[in-house]
Predict the structure.
Amino acid sequence: MQKKIGILVVIILIIIFAILAFKWIKHRMEYAITNAVFVESDYISNVGFHRVSGKIVQMYKKEGDFVKKGEKLAKLYDKDFKIELKATEDKIKALNYKKQALIEKIKRIKKELNLNQEVAYLGLKEVNQKIEEFKFNINQLDIQLAQLKKDRDRLKRLLEKKLIPQKKYEEVQTQYRVLQEKRQQLDKMLTQLQVVKEKAEKNVSLTEVKKGILKELEKQLKSLESQLKALEEQKIDIQNKIQYTVLTAPFDGYIGKKFVSVGDSVKAGMPVYSIIKKDSFYINVLLEENKLEGIKVGSKAKIKLDAYPDEEFEGVVETINYATAAKYALVPRDISAGEFTKVVQRIPVKIKITKGKKELLRVGLGGEVEIKREE
């Protein structure tokens, strides 16, 4: 009886073992299982100060802290930049005063020019016309005087011979004297006009001088405007640098690493914090090449992490790499000499997490994954 019971127990154990073995084999056939599993993040950013260097005076976050986009992380000493900004603003203010005074001066000279220029050129033109008119009249008088002189001399000879009356000779003589007096008056007036012309030419010359002065002032104004533009750009650049002395978070995430401390001097671009973006975690699986059969994009997966043995995560295959992990190793295997040892290669497989407590995830955690094979 006892022998029969013993045999029955052995048979039952064999059946149980066979069932378990069948289930285990079936499970292995249906799932690709590996423990080469790591939690990774698509967004791990080492952030540092943009364009500015200096001493850190404040660190606002510590490792493990959650930060929101735009939240302050650290601050540099900025007093030197503020002094530079004040000096630049003072220069801009002084140049603006100078510019305004120059604009007023240019307006005044332009107004004077608009008045004087028209008067000067118009006056000179009229004077020249009058001078030409007087010269023409004098020339006509000279012709008449020359003719009268001939007539007078002829009549004088006739009078001496008593061939004409005295009165006729005196009439011509009187006409001659009258024309001579008129000629003298015209000469005086012409001389006066010459003086007026000299004054008018001087006014024209002064107008040209003022034009030159105006041109030079306009050049100075352009130069001032160029200086002001450069200073305004410099001011904006300094203001930007002051803003850059405050380091802010580029996105919502967690502080993964703090590289420096208060009092440290840092250069532009030097890492200050490493930030892991929120909800950017995924599972990186280095799947053995002999387990790839049936694994496709969209295949479902179950993940267990060593740090949380009681928690289960679910996901789907998002990408299957086209190269083995060894291909991009820092020191790839050299088989050019013909020396070769067969090693199972691993293919990186990215799994997107669809279910589970994502807040528990930490970059670098290890575990095990089961990926459902597709038909």
